[in-house]
From TrEMBL:
GO cellular component: axon; cell surface; membrane; neuronal cell body
GO molecular function: cell-cell adhesion mediator activity
Boundaries of every Ig-like domain copy: 17-119
Membrane-protein topology: Single-pass membrane protein
Keyword tags: Disulfide bond, Glycoprotein, Immunoglobulin domain, Membrane, Signal, Transmembrane, Transmembrane helix
Gene encoding the protein: LOC114650890
Ranges annotated as spanning the membrane: 236-255
The keyword Transmembrane helix is assigned to this record: yes
GO biological process: heterotypic cell-cell adhesion; negative regulation of neuroinflammatory response
Broad class of where this protein is predominantly found: membrane
Signal peptide span: 1-17
Protein name, as recorded: OX-2 membrane glycoprotein-like
Keyword Cytoplasm: no
Compartments, as annotated in UniProt: Membrane
Length: 280
């Protein structure tokens, strides 16, 4: 065990009253870099700063800084953690490429020999979001019924919902599966019929702390709302044309019937008038 580590452990046995300014919790997205910081509010003659990670009942030393030994990051954290000190009253560590196992509480210790040490604690929360999966199928071509599925896995559980192109939220069936370690898979199933009046397309919206902005997946439906008035108008015009033709035919038949009847009557009258001229 190195001299500076022994020095740090010895100082932890004593303590003095002081306040450390730090964030209670720090949020980080998976694989991004994050910085944890502490600042001693009172001016003290600090000899050494130590950073530790609390895992259950175990406490692991991560890094130290002292005037005599300088900065030192312990194994196996050398490649992923940097410690910096603006002064012996201000310190921070930077964790590169945050992993799931980095989640937990960290402690900074300001040690003053021989008075003792004062501590601050900050807890890191790692937000994880994995692939967003979608699926669509036309389950009834005759009724224009569509089945849409959208799922996402994350820690904490992601929020998954549906919205139309007109910004209307739709009701869907949701299933949740607990995968352990705080990871939850959310599956949202949406069934749409032509008669539901949803045209153009719908979007699956996923919200999660790991996203700066909500992500969406677009589904295009085969029927368009803009086509509906045209379809109705076209159907109306066809009906008008058919009835017009039918009416014209009926009127023509009536006209022909009346015309024919008039001609027959006229012919009979002419025969009656001219009849005696042909008698012998």
């Amino acid at each position: 065990m190195s001299v500076f580590l022994i020095f740090s452990i010895c100082l932890l046995k004593e303590g003095f009253a002081a306040v450390v300014d730090t964030s209670a919790t720090v949020d980080a997205r998976l694989n991004e870099d994050v910085e944890l910081g502490c600042r001693l509010q009172e001016s003290k003659s600090i000899n050494q700063i130590t950073w530790q990670k609390i895992t259950g009942s175990a406490v692991n030393n991560l890094a130290t800084y002292s005037e005599y030994f300088g900065a030192k990051v312990l194994e196996p954290y050398e490649q992923r953690i940097n410690i910096s000190t603006a002064s012996l009253n201000v310190t921070s560590i930077r964790i590169k490429g945050v992993r799931s196992e980095d989640e937990g509480c960290y402690r900074c210790l300001f040690s003053e020999y021989p008075t003792g040490s004062v501590t601050g604690k900050t807890c890191l929360v790692v937000h994880e979001l994995y692939d967003i999966t979608t699926k669509s199928s036309n389950i009834s071509a005759t009724e224009d019924t569509y089945f849409l599925m959208c799922s996402a896995t994350g820690k904490p559980a992601p929020e998954v919902f549906w919205r139309t192109s007109e910004n209307k939220t739709l009701t869907a069936e949701e299933q949740r599966t607990d995968n352990g370690n705080g990871r939850v898979t959310v599956i949202s199933n949406l069934t749409l019929k032509y008669s539901d009046g949803v045209y153009g397309g719908v979007d699956c919206i996923v919200k999660h702390p790991a996203l700066q902005n909500a992500e969406s997946r677009h589904f295009v439906l085969l029927y368009e709302k803009t086509d509906e008035p045209a379809k109705k108008q076209g159907s109306y015009l066809v009906e008008v044309v058919i009835f017009s033709i039918f009416g014209a035919v009926v009127l023509y038949c009536i006209y022909r019937y009346k015309t024919k009847g008039t001609n027959i009557h006229k012919e009979m009258m002419e025969r009656n008038q001219c009849g005696p001229l042909f008698r012998v």
